[in-house]
Each structure stands twice: as C-alpha cells, then as structure tokens.
Design brief:
The complex is a heterodimer of chains A (about 600) and B (about 170). Chain A has about 600 residues and is of the alpha/beta class. Chain A has a domain of about 35 residues: Monooxygenase. Chain A contains 20 helices and 23 strands. In chain A, β17, α17 and β18 form a beta-alpha-beta unit. Chain A is globular and about 65 Å long. Chain B has a domain of about 90 residues: Phosphatidylinositol 3-kinase Catalytic Subunit, Chain A, domain 1 (Ubiquitin-like (UB roll), Roll), CATH 3.10.20. In chain B, about 40% of the residues lie in helices and about 20% in strands. In chain B, a hairpin with a 2-residue loop joins β1 and β2. The chains are: A alpha/beta (about 600), B alpha/beta (about 170). Chains A and B meet through loops of A and α1, α2 and α3 of B. Chain A: InterPro entries: COI1_F-box, Leu-rich_rpt_Cys-con_subtyp, LRR_dom_sf, Transp_inhibit.
C-alpha cells in the first residue's frame, strides 16, 4: 500500500547516535560523576529531584541515551522521566526488561520485521508479535496513551485488550502491520472512549465482516485523526458521515477507495476544518449521467481553508481534478501515487502548488511532468516517483532528464525515491551538486545490473558523487550496474549513512568489507542478490554490535560461515531463514542478524533456524 | 510491453543495445559484457527469482503493485462484442465476451439479461421442466450453429461470431 503519511519524512530512524541506544549493553562503562554521587544520601536525593525536573524537558531519544550513561544516579532518573519509549527492534530487548527499567511510560513506539519483508522476501508468520508487549505493559503502564507499531503482527484480541487495559488510551498508529481485521477494529473503537487518533497506514486488514465504523461510541467524539485508506473493504458510509459530524476536532481524515467522490463531498462540507484529507476513490461509484446532478466539488474544497495535505485519488477521473485548484496554493503535501495522470493533466495543478514540500507521484507524468514540478515547486523537500509499470526492460517514462530537472529546480530537496528504467551518472552527479541538503537518496533503476546508457559505464561514479557531495546523507539505496568501486566510495565518504539498501550489486567480498569498515554510523544494512560471502561478513563483525540489524538474502553466505559468526558474537541473534519448502542447504538463503540482550527468541517459526 | 527476458540475459541485451548506440569505446563495451556475463551467471543460480518478472523485484509493495496492475488492465482491455438473440424476441442484445472470464461467467450474465434458465454443454437439467429452459448456441466461423461449452473458453472466443438462445 502506498504510504499516505506523505507529510512525514521518509527517514524513519531518528538520530540514534549512541550505539548502545537504550539498552544497558555494557554495564561497567559508566563514567564517574565528579562532585556529586558521593557518600551522603541527602545531597544525592536533592540532586536527583532537581535532575528529574530538568530531565523532563529532554525529549530527544539520543540525548536521553547519552544522559543515562553519565552515572548510575543519572541513569535512574532518566529512566523515571522517559515517557516515550522507542524500541527499534522488538527482539532486541524483552518487554519485561523494558518495563522494568522505564516505569513511567506513556507512549510506546515499537518496530518489528525488517523492511525487506514488505517485498515478499520473508515468509509469513515470521514473528514480531505485539501480544507479549501488550501483556507486559498492562500493569506497569496503566496510563499508557499512545502506541505506534511498525511491521508488527497484531491480532483482534490484542486490539480489544489494548482498549480494555488502558482507560486513558488516546492514539493508535499501525504502519505496515497485519494479523487483525474489522472485528478487532470494532472492539477497539467501541471500548476506547478517549480515542483521538486511529491511523491505519499501509496495513493489511482482514475482512471479518464487521461494520467497525458504526462501533464508535455515540455522543461527541474526541477524534482528531482517522486514517483508513488501506482498508480494502467497504465501510458504512452513513455511520461515517455521522461520526464526522460529531467530531469537531477532526483534522485528519483519509478515506479508502470505497468512498466515492459524491460521498467525499458530503463529508467535506461537514468538516471544513480538515488539514489532511485522503480523497478515497475520487470518482463516482456509478457512471455519471445516472440522474445525479454534478456537485460543485470545487466549492467543497474551497471551504477547506486549512487543507495542507492531500492524498487518495484511488481511481481518479481527471475531469474532477480541477476541483482541487482552490487548495493548491496552500498545499504542502500532495500524494498522487495512485493517480494515473499524464503531464498535461498534472501541469494545471502543480503550477499552483508553490508551497509544496512533499510530492509523491506516478511516472505516468513522465519527464515532462517532472520538469513542471521543478519549475514551480521551489520549496520541495521530498519527492517520490513510483512506476506505474513495475517491470524491467520496458521504455522509461521517467529518466535522467527528469532527475536533472528536479535537481536544478528543487535545490532544497532533502529526500528522494526515484524509480526509473534508465539513469545516467551525469544526472546523479548533477543532483549531488545541486541538492546539498539531501538526507535520503534512493534510486531504483529497475533493470538489474543496468549500466549508464550513454557511457556504458557502471553507476559507481554517480553514487560516489552522492556520498561525497551530500554531507548530510543518512539513507542510501543503490541500484544499476555497480562494482566494488561504488562501495569503496560509500565506505570512504558515507560517514553519516545509517541505512543502506543494496540489490544486485558489487563484484566481490571487498564491496561489503568497504561498507562495514568505513560506514561508522551504519545501523541498518539490507542486501539482496549480491556476491558477498562469509569472509566479507567476518571482516566487519566488530561493527555488528553497533548496528540494529543486518539482512542478507541470496548472497554467498554459507551455513558454516554463519555458524562461526554466531559463535563469535554471543549477543547477536543470527537467524537463517529459508523458504518453506526448501531443504537445509549449505548456502544460506536469507540471513537476518541483529543485536539482542535476550538471546534466541522462542517464537520463531520452523523455517527459521537460530544459530 | 516488457519482454520476458531472464535476469542474466536482460543485462547483456541492454548493455549491448546501449553500447552500440553510444559512441563509447568498444573496449568498455567488451568489459561490460564480460562483467555482465559474470554477474549474470553468478546471480542466475540464486533461488528467489527465475526468468519471469520476480514478485519481489522491483521493490514495490504488493498492495500498490496490485492496485496499479488492476488499473493497467482496465485501461488496456480490449472488448469483443457479439450479438445475442433470443427466440421470440426480434430485438437482439450485445455482449462483451472479453468482460467474462469463463463459461460460468457468461451463462450467469445471459441468464440475468434474458431472465431465463440456460442450458449449455455442462448444465444440469431438471428433466420435468424442459419448457422452462433455453439452449445457448453460437455460430462459429464456418457458419455452423453449435452448443456452447464443448471447447475450451479461449477456443470458443476465437471461433464465436454470435450467440442465439433457443427454446428447448
């Protein structure tokens, strides 16, 4: 499901400077407090109270991690004052350990499966269950208000329990989650009386047949955000309309594709205070001319004076596009990633979007459309171009021409995800020079091992320029024909890179070695179909405790090699995952390796072997 | 649309194409070819993808891939309208055969359109009530009227000219 959280930056891993994060990895690394922390109790207590009051103001996770390392006293106080708990890998630490250390948590942010699981690279039922966390939190955190889960498995029972266990629960955000259905949603919304936010983003919702929208409690609702564009089942529109009518605080509403444009109209006139709108189908359910008069959709949009973020357009009929003209000037985020429109259809819209900062679009707009974007959207910070036809070796509607144009017109660009069939080093180099603020650079040349079409060279120089010139770069995804040279550049210059995605690239073990030895800030490394083997991995082992995880699939790892690694690194969990029906082989199909305080997990399915 | 090339050959073909179309030195195109060959050979032994477009590459999330594929199909789909007449009704109807996936689909539409029970090759018939049924036949390329349902669906699509629903 295309992400409709288009206003958020794509970089989901915040500043995680300290390698030990919030885990007490090496307990005897505590430094000494100079004057304080000595014999007498009384001064200690006073100081702790003062510290507590001060630390309440600290919100950054990274700062808190540093604070907790100062000395035992600071560690204690920091733990007492941390109200938002972020766990980047649900298996890195057990729920019990986390709740024991942090006793006053109000918000939990938990991530489960690695990202490559989104692309069918991992068999289902791998793990990442929310349930143990839920059960562990019920008693210690009675005041829990917010849960944010990404790539976790959540059941219907979990949802019911969540609402029952925490009377003041306010916000639930499920991103890329699965395992639950409309039944679970129904129990959750009916029991959760203080609910402000229910965001279902790119999650798979099972159809149990329940009309969950009708289950919101009667009376005035506190709802501020309701996002359900990923729900692939019809909803009870009348109930939704009534809900919106009694939710005066509602600011974000993202509808699914079962809401027609006529129904959208009815909702919009009830909620002109909306700031974020997902438009649903954006076409009528039946063919026009069936008796309904054409509504003035433009008026509805014009009435929404606070609208800054627009998405949806699931089955857009371009004739209706002019309706959004009134809001274009104020838009900061526009998600057209489901809209099959061409450059001519885009131009009248984009030419009005001067304030646009985030733009997601399909390559149906072609290079010409991108040129139009470059001409107007000078404030653009994030661009994502998705392929309407996800195949290799077909003609490219977007290419180096589009990228070049964007780099020249949108020089404040910070994040880009660009799918294309062809790309030149020249255009990538140009972007590296024109857009020095780039933090995220993800280029996906869909043809595997494709060289620069003009020079015939590998794409090494292009990506090399990116790591060299973009000094703030923290996330990189590479593609096209790449030799070890590209990795040499990345290792040498990519000193701030935290997330690296590699597919079908490199010549030899040296490639991986360069990266593991050079990229000191590397946290997440995901590699597929590249010729890296055991030797490469061994050479970079020292770095592995500093990483959240390493994923390698269809590379040249052997079971023997992985076994040695598991042996050498006791605090790493080394999972070997094979396809359900494949034999245990000498070659490892998928290696997923992560640091953990808990050792091998007990909920691994049978196709996962923990070495 | 896309050629269904194997992973190893696609890179060779593409680099060939580009190498010859550019003014680059032939030496570099040679090197690219051998690198491609090398990479191609080594990669083709790994399991997750075969010669077809793999479901896990390019990295598009399945729900989006599906949604766009559906859209594609709707735009590209051809139509094949045939005339349908029913006994006793002088005015015929037209039906798009390509909007149907199988005989069952077609029969369902026709039964709905003409408000009757239809017999075809695989129909189960209640012996006592023949008068309530109609038989579905089609005219083939040779002008003969045949009962619908004997040949595979695709073969039927290539042979059918028009349909007739006659009384039993």
């Amino acid at each position: 499901m295309r992400r409709n959280g288009a206003e958020d930056m794509s970089e989901d891993d915040e500043r995680q400077q300290s390698p030990r994060s919030d885990l007490e990895f090496t307990s005897n690394k505590a430094r000494y407090c100079k004057a304080t922390g000595s014999a007498s109790d009384h001064p200690d207590q006073v100081l702790e109270n003062v510290l507590e009051n001060v630390l309440h103001f600290l919100t950054s996770r990274r700062d808190r991690n540093s604070v907790s390392l100062v000395c035992k006293s600071w560690y204690r106080v920091e733990a007492l004052t941390r109200s938002e708990l972020f766990i980047g890998n649900c298996y890195a630490v057990s729920p019990g350990r986390a709740t024991a250390r942090f006793t006053r948590v109000r918000a939990l942010h938990l991530k489960g499966k690695p990202r490559f699981a989104d692309f069918n690279l991992m068999p289902p039922d791998w793990g990442a269950h929310f349930n143990p966390w839920l059960l562990a939190m019920a008693k210690p955190y009675p005041w829990l208000e917010k849960v944010y889960l990404k790539r976790m498995s959540v059941t219907n029972d979990d949802l019911a329990t969540l609402a029952e266990s925490f009377s003041g629960f306010k916000e639930l955000v499920l991103v890329c989650c699965d395992g639950f259905g409309t039944n679970g949603l129904a129990s959750f919304v009916s029991k959760c009386r203080q609910l402000r936010v229910l965001d279902l983003i790119e999650s798979e919702v099972i159809h149990d047949g329940t009309d969950w929208i009708s289950c919101f409690p009667q009376g005035e609702s506190h709802l501020e955000s309701l996002i359900f564009d990923c729900v692939e089942w019809p909803i009870n529109f009348e109930a939704l309309e009534r809900l919106v009518a009694r939710s005066p605080l509602l600011k974000k509403l993202r509808l699914n594709r079962y809401v027609s444009i006529g129904q959208l109209y009815r909702l919009m006139i009830q909620a002109p205070q909306l700031t974020h709108l997902g438009t649903g189908l954006f076409s009528p359910l039946e063919i026009a001319g069936q008796g309904d008069q054409e509504l003035d959709y433009g008026t509805a949009f014009a009435a929404c004076r606070s609208l800054v973020c627009l998405s949806g357009f699931r089955e857009i009929i371009p004739d209706y596009l002019p309706a959004i003209y009134p809001v274009c000037a104020n838009l900061t985020s526009l998600n057209f990633s489901y809209a099959n429109i061409n450059a001519e259809q885009l131009k009248p819209i984009i030419s009005k979007c001067h304030k646009l900062r985030v733009f997601w679009v399909l390559d149906s707009i072609c290079d010409e459309g991108l040129q139009a974007v470059a001409a107007t959207c000078k404030e653009l910070r994030e661009l994502r171009v998705f392929p309407i036809n996800a195949q290799e070796d077909i003609d490219s509607p977007v290419s180096e021409v589009g990228l070049q144009a964007i780099s020249e017109g949108c020089q404040k660009l910070q994040s880009i995800l660009y799918f294309c069939q062809r790309m030149t080093n020249e255009a990538v180099i140009a972007m590296s020079k024109n857009c020095p603020d780039l933090v995220v650079f993800r280029l996906c040349i869909m043809g595997r091992h494709k060289p620069d079409p003009v020079t015939g060279e590998p794409m090494d120089d292009g990506f090399g320029a990116i790591v060299m010139n973009c000094k703030k770069l923290t996330r990189l995804a590479v593609s096209g024909l790449l030799t070890d040279k590209a990795f040499e550049y990345i290792g040498k210059y990519g000193k701030l890179v935290r997330t690296l995605s590699v597919a079908f690239a490199g010549d030899s073990d040296m490639g991986l070695k360069y990266v593991l030895e050079g990229c000191s800030q590397l946290q997440k490394l995901e590699i597929r179909d590249s010729p890296f083997g055991d030797a490469a991995l061994r050479s970079g082992l020292h770095h592995c405790y500093y990483m959240r995880f390493l994923w390698m699939s269809s590379c040249r790892l052997t079971r023997q090699g992985c076994q040695e690694i598991a042996h050498a690194m006791p605090r790493l969990v080394v999972e070997v995952i094979r396809s359900a029906d494949m034999e245990m082989d000498d070659f490892v199909e998928t290696l997923y390796m992560y640091r953990s305080l808990e050792g091998p997990r007990i909920d691994a399915p049978k196709y996962v072997t923990i070495l | 649309m896309g050629r269904a090339t194997s992973s190893s050959s696609s890179s060779i073909e593409s680099s060939n194409h580009f190498a010859f179309s550019s003014t680059g030195a032939s030496a570099s195109s040679q090197r690219d070819l051998s690198t491609d060959l090398q990479l191609g050979l080594s990669i083709s032994t790994s399991p997750p993808y075969g010669r077809e477009q793999p479901s896990d590459w390019p990295p598009i999330k399945p729900p989006l891939r599906q949604a766009l594929a559906e859209e594609e199909n709707e735009c590209d789909s051809a139509t094949f309208f045939v005339k349908v007449y029913m006994d006793g009704i002088p005015i015929g109807r037209k039906l798009d055969l390509l909007a149907h996936e199988s005989y069952y689909d077609l029969i369902r539409t026709l039964q709905h359109m003409f408000n009757t029970n239809i017999i075809w090759a695989e129909a189960e018939v209640d012996g006592d009530h023949y008068e309530k049924y109609h038989v579905l036949t089609y005219e083939d390329k040779e002008g003969d009227w045949m009962m619908v349902g004997d040949v595979p669906w695709e073969m039927f699509l290539s042979a059918v000219r028009r349909l007739k629903i006659t009384k039993c």
